[in-house]
Amino acid sequence: MKVRRQTEHETQGVSRRQALRFGVAVAAGAAAGPFVMRVARAADGFSWQRFKGSKIFIQFTKNPWADTMEKMVPDFEKETGIKVESATLPEIQARQKLTVEFTAGSGGIDVWYTSMHVEKRRFWKSGWYLDLRKFLNDPTMTAPDYDWNDMAAGAKSIATQPDGSISGLPAFVDPWILFYRKDLFAQKGLKPPKTLAEMEEFAQKFHAAPKFYGFVARGLKNANAPAWDWVLFSMGGNFQTKDGKASVNTPEAVKAMDYYAGMLRRFAPPGVVNFNWYECSSAFMQDQVAQYFDGVNFASQFEDPQKSKIAGKVGYAVLPAGPAGHFSPIFGNAVAVSAQSKAQGPAYFFAQWATTKRSAVKELLAGTGSARTSVWSDPEVKAKPKMPADWYQAYVDSLKIGRLGLPEIVAVTEYRDIIGVAIQKAIEGAKSANVLEAAQKEFQEVLDKTEK
Q1: Is the CB of residue 159 less than 8 Å from the CB of residue 333?
Q2: Residue 32: pLDDT above 90?
Q3: How far apart are CA 29 and CA 25, in angstroms?
Q4: Quick one: pLDDT at residue 285?
């Protein structure tokens, strides 16, 4: 296997009740859609060796799920006889590469990790996703034990387009949760914050710059939008009105910006306007921060003593509630096949293999989450979980209050850029009302052009 990598950086079990709650929670997030998979039979002639000798190119996005999957690629090659070449890039660079490759029609990328919350509408309208329904319904192409209906309803919905086409096989549903220093909280007799006001209060208690900081979250343009969106929901705001108009300059939005930018300005490490998840996680793991929130799958590295100075000292909890309610932003990720690929069958085999129950168990054991409902009650997961029990609990409880963390629009990247610039300016001291008024105008102009 030749793998070309380009990177910017390099207990207890789960109860059956928790597993059932996971399935119910995700199902509550969205309807599963009309697609129903026929039951494949072993007699129909499926074989993992069908495309032996084929080659595919995979574009990975740098994240813990991809790190786990890359380690599993040799197992895929052995089981299928398909040779893999791959590249790994940070999220923004990976998406830029995908756009360039697909726009050029090069056919150089066969399969990729797709962030549905960003790429879903745009890539679908551009015709870049292969509709996977034909393969899912073909018993010679889909293993009899794949079990599409084991995918959580919310995960299937996120991967399904308005026309019913399926643009990817769900990898995992990613709710955002709170990471906090349970050892330091215990020393002060504190439990994780239940409200935004408590989070701010605790940030003040722990803040001791320049050695230690009370809070950190994403400040970098584009990457910061999903983090701010959670505060927006908590304050009673939303990205858009019910009729689809921009809605980012409301009083609720101003309160959200005041809170989020204010927390980063007062309690985060210097240079936070340039922090993506990697920088936030690094600061947290280097024993520099008391509270941090982000995607649940980033937590796996916190428990690795070789990477983290705080292994065994991290607590995991549902995000605090705001004045308008209790929410967790959720995001869907999938493995997609390019409509331009000249090796669509072998590419689909990788997407299928990467999302089987067997692979999902390995991924969950690695602490990267799952889109399947059955794996939470898998005997192996219960017997030797990598993550602490409160991580699993925070995961399933967050799914119960999950809300899509970004608008499902063609121009979601533009939205993230527009809001991201506003957040950065607010962190640097600009008035929230002013930066959001400018963002409102620009966002509406983008919607007028792209959502006709």
Answers
A1: no
A2: no
A3: 7
A4: 98
